[in-house]
Amino acid sequence: MLRRDAQRNLERLARAAREVFAERGLNAPLEKIAERAGVSIGTLYNRYPDRYALIDAVLLDRMQENLQIGEVALAADDPWQGFADYLEQTCELQARDRGVTDAISRRFPKAPKVEAACADGFVQARQLIERAQRQGTLRPDFTVGDLVSVLWANARIVEATIAVDPNAWRRYLRFVLDGLHAEAAHPIPEPALDPDQVDRARLALGATKQ
To answer: Which residue, among 115, 111, 7, 97, has the nearest Cα to 49 in the 3D structure?
Structure first.
């Protein structure tokens, strides 16, 4: 059992990490987290040996929140509405927490709990896409790789507009959703990224300094 002061330090570090990752993303300097928690960087490393251990410890609850969004969407009576709600609420989570954006958009194999939650999330996303496509409402050529690209784009929109209009991303998401309706679809000559290409892109984005 941790001493009372050690437990307080652990709680302060976890709270500070959630706040700093939400504000600055998962590449945020660990020194900033220690500073906000009011502890030394040595204390941080005593509790979390590297960045990935810290990510696993503090981000899992956010990823569980995203999985809950997916569960509700899969239970929706209308598959298109379930898909649209899932996309909007995931983008909203991105707007609230840059750490979530990074976790969804990138790969962090050294943070196995977050990686597993992301993998479960992509299974949900595939089910939501296929469900809406079987209904005939979502364009048939849309893939999970395309969904990742939409989330990458939303992340940049949020980053560019959050200080001037925290809800600006909602307008651009509406354009995207309108374009994803099957009746609005036109053939696209460029192929979608295959799962291996998406995985390699996310790994490259996830390369981060400890």
So the answer is: 111
Output the 3-class SS for the chain: CCCHHHHHHHHHHHHHHHHHHHHHCCCCCHHHHHHHHCCCHHHHHHHCCCHHHHHHHHHHHHHHHHHHHHHHHHCCCCHHHHHHHHHHHHHHHHHHCHHHHHHHHCCCCCCHHHHHHHHHHHHHHHHHHHHHHHHCCECCCCCHHHHHHHHHHHHHHHHHHCCCCCCHHHHHHHHHHHHHEHHHCCCCCCCCCCHHHHHHHHHHHHCCCC
Among 11, 19, 4, 99, CA closest to 47: 11
Spell out the per-residue pLDDT of the chain, length 210, in tens. 456 777 888 889 999 999 999 999 899 999 999 999 999 999 999 999 999 999 999 998 889 999 999 999 999 999 999 999 999 999 999 999 989 888 887 777 888 999 999 899 999 999 999 999 999 999 999 999 999 999 989 988 988 888 889 999 999 999 999 999 988 778 888 888 788 887 777 777 766 544
